[in-house]
What does this fold into?
Amino acid sequence: MPARASDPPPRDAPSIARRPLLAAAAGLGLSFALPALSARAARRRGAERPRSLLAIWLAGGPSQLETFDPHPGGPIGGPTRAIDTTMQGVRIAADYPRVAERLHRFAVVRSLVSKEGDHERGQYAVKTGYRPDPTAVHPALGAIAAHELPAAGLELPRFIALGGGEFPSRGGYLGPDYDPYRVFAPGEKGQNLVPRVTAARQSRRLDALGVLTRSFATGRAEAVRRTRHEQTVAEALTLMTSEQLSAFDLDGESAATRAAYGDTGFGRGCLVARRLVEVGVRSVEVTLPGFDTHAANFTGHASQAAVLDPALAALVDDLGDRDLLESTVVLVMGEFGRTPTINRLDGRDHWPHGFSCLLGGAGIAAGRVIGSTDPDGRARLPADPIAVADLTATVLAALGIDASREVTTAAGRPMKLSSGIPVPRLLDPDSSG
Amino acid sequence: MATATDRRQSIAARTLPVAAVASVVLLVMAAARPAMDGRPLAVDRGAAPSDAAADPTVAAVDAILAARRRANSVRAATPADDLTVLRRLWLALAGTIPSLEEIRRFEADAAPDRTARALRGLLADRRSAEALARRLASALVGDERGTFIVFRRDRFTSWLADQLAAHRPWDAVVRDMVAARGLWTDTPAVNFITQAATGKTVDAGKLAGRAARVFLGTRLDCAQCHDHPFAAWTQRDFEGLAACFAQARLSAVGVEDDARRVLRVTRTTAMAMPTTENAAEGETAVPPSVPFGVDWLGRGGTQRENLAAWLVHADNLRFDRAIANRMWAILFGRPWHEPVDDLPAPRVPADHARSAGVDDDPLDLLAADFRRHGRDLRRLIEVIAATEAFRMASDHPLLAAGADCDRVVDAWAAFPLSRLAPEQMIGAMVATTSLRTIDKDSHLLTRTVRFLRENDFLREYGRVQDGQGRGLPATVPQTLAQMNARLTRDLVEANATTATGRIAGMAAADPARVELAFLVALTRRPTPAERDAMLPVLGQASTKGRGMEDLMWALLNGPEFCWNH
It folds into this structure.
């Protein structure tokens, strides 16, 4: 029976009174006396750990020819060179030496096809597995993951988006509960998390707020309930008093670690993402904008690579070292690629007919390449095309979620989680499907 | 009386003309300060207010909604309190809430049509032109970030506010926007076009999509890459409309039309940018065309001028329905049709003489009235605000439980709850807690700090995208901003310049303080039970100032403040 999308799974909402008690117990070193609700909601490591999604969105449309599918020396290659990787016979753009040394951790898909060539529509298509539809707003992958994957003991938001994005992921018909919690400046202290008065005054303020809320609800109880005002305040208060908040800041990380990820907003975002996955957040995404190089494509992509290469490599190493890679699905992709032909501004334009992504981690058959594009840039479609909806379904399958499962929207309409079908070769090393 | 020379103030100063003796002292002090601008609304003296009972359009819209209620088996909610209606009008049209002085003046007006006159005062005031311009600009030129885009958008919004303040007909304003030429600084209207500019090129497809949505209430851009799956639009329709913008380009003299530019498409890529280059292999030129009403196209002018004439043609029913739906959304917080920019195709204009059917569309009536009155936006607003539905309370016996709630909402049998837009939230918070105008005489540092804090707040609070319903609940980050942001703390703080401080400093007793707090924050008086519940908040605090801060904080964070009702 399809679950109602509007009923979120129950989550703990510890009352404020418990905080002093927990703090006292921890302070006395009585960590064994702490209840199962502890600062680390997910303590297990390795393959038995519940799965999480870590999506890296390369916003603007990264050129496949300047990233993971170069064709140097031909009519379309431009000045981009290629280098060998840890995958036999597979070469990627020379600007990604660190990723090249770790490429075997991923499956490389070079034949993604989408029907959407517009940024907003394209991002919608790759994030949701559906084409934009005036009658419904589909949830992004991250929102679906947050909805489907239980997060017992997690006090942080279920779905967290780091870094700016012009078209943020949305919870869609799953409801605004599944919109991501957005962190615009990863690594800095979180926004607006500290009350500005003493606990006693805060308590009086909240009591007064309760009186006013109940008073307003008189004669409008259901309408006020639908505003979720009280619930949202309660969730905000829970977040404000959570020990898990420390996952957002980087004080606990060594200088070496921070340097490995790079002193960039995106680098810090990837490091925070690892910390969030570690503390038990099931769905994290990090956005790196700046790939929309209609002009000066080559210099533009070189500077993007200077940010992406170290951060992605450090992230993969870090997840591996902490035994998190086997339980985290890592996706690296943009909304489309860029044209093989170089335009008059030394740029490339949008190209959804054969672009690349990296997919690795939990449940993914790494170390293989799927599909290929024409080195002369003339073919209309790539060999072995994979529709972006099928890629979305594959990610869901790797997370242990059935993409064909139907959910009933608030309007009563049954909707599959993805319109695509998982690609067996990406999930099973022995499959040729 | 507002003087015509006072300009550019988004926050009106408030004085506290309260009965207590100590407050009279405050009043004298306040009046002595030169930068203070009392800024009551321009009082409408001469014109007769619209009489709801006599106006046939209002009566016809009321009749349609009454039929809808009957079909849903729900009664109308009781009429709302006049002060509640006043607050709705201020939020919709000024982006803020009425000051204490406004409330006193309003209550002193004993005439039964005082709400209509308050509305006229609002519409005659420059601030409403600015607030409306901001709302419309969001739909017209979007909300994207980027410093340069923000500058251009501000120039555009300022120009649009001038047009609204000058009471220009909406079709003339739209013609200006669509066909404008010149530098973005000298001719701000061209920023409707520059929103789609990258370098020298103008993205004709983006403009066509925007124009169709905001002027015609049609999501033609869904047909950009393929024939529309639901409506009748084809890819050809969209391309033809985009081609109408193809000649626009940016040059050293700003936006101009180059007759040699054409739009070309190929069958393998998405639509390319317009160009003057020769056709490459596989490309075909697209002639400008319109998807319906071909006779309405202008003749003899530039392609954009001809397109503008088509958009605003008297027979183009979509044009009037689209703006009527938007104005409905501005006033009610929810559009009549959702989404606001994708309306069903118009039917034959309704005939007032026959009795209303439950399927009749009030937008048709509003659109016809709009056309008859020369596309007068103020008239459109007055008609909508005079309807029975706009005057209803937001509480209703059937709003207690789930399924019944849907029937009430569907029939517009009670005024809907809708969340304040971020700008309204800031406007209302500042209005509640400020006494002092932040105007051109204020210290630059104060203004800068305020500007930065408001922008931080806005970024965290987020912007509601055009088309997203205001029924959406707040998110956790928005709530966190509301509760803990520096802006909130600064506004709520009890000091000499804030209402919080002034009310705390009064010699009067705590019940009077509670009443004042409710009036400035919620535009109403507290019930006896509420007053009794709030007295301990003041009493238990270590100082009167802290107690008032706590009370004010609670008022600003409650659903009644954060949701229009």
